[in-house]
Amino acid sequence: MQWTNLSEQNVYKNRWFRVNLADVELPDGRHLDHFVIRLRPVAVATVVNEANEVLMLWRHRFITDSWGWELAAGVVEDGEDIEAAAAREMEEETGWRPGPLRPLLTVEPSNGLTDARHHLYWAEEATYTGHPEDDFESSRREWVPLKLVPGMVARGEVPAANMAAGLLMLHHLRLG
């Protein structure tokens, strides 16, 4: 039951994404037009301290007009290493430079429409370097007890699927 992408035509592009129209052949031989959004990889990072608290950001997303807890994240620049991008984003958005990063997981948050891959990392230590350069990214930054994460996800306080998956994985790794 595999669909085959026979060709794509670009409809729109900018620095952040491309919108393409694909000619897709279904298993029964029929064809359909399908829009595909092509995105650069996203790098995500956080730290869990010795008290099992995770560094999180409280922010508003204007597209969905919603507030929620997230981890520091951003697009990987051309030629940039994904892990390095995760460390850069964490420091820019939180003011904390992570220690050695460990891969946590990679997710495809909307694979029926986009090719987006979000690569999540975590560290067990970080150094405070000062007020975040990109303080406009969030209203506040807080150390949140990891034990509270499942309840926060269940109540919808972590609305982004990539963030919820990463936080639940951290909860599992650290607290079982």
TrEMBL record:
It comes from the Bacteria. Coiled coil: none annotated. Its cofactor is Mg(2+). Keywords: Hydrolase. The keyword Transmembrane does not apply. InterPro entries: Nudix_hydrolase (IPR020476), NUDIX_hydrolase-like_dom_sf (IPR015797), NUDIX_hydrolase_CS (IPR020084), NUDIX_hydrolase_dom (IPR000086). Transmembrane segments: none annotated. One of its GO terms (molecular function) is hydrolase activity. The keyword Protein transport does not apply. Residues 38-171 form the Nudix hydrolase domain. Belongs to the Nudix hydrolase family. PANTHER family: NUDIX HYDROLASE DOMAIN-CONTAINING PROTEIN, UDP/ADP-SUGAR PYROPHOSPHATASE. This is NUDIX hydrolase. It comes from Streptomyces enissocaesilis. The lineage of its organism: Bacteria, Bacillati, Actinomycetota, Actinomycetes, Kitasatosporales.
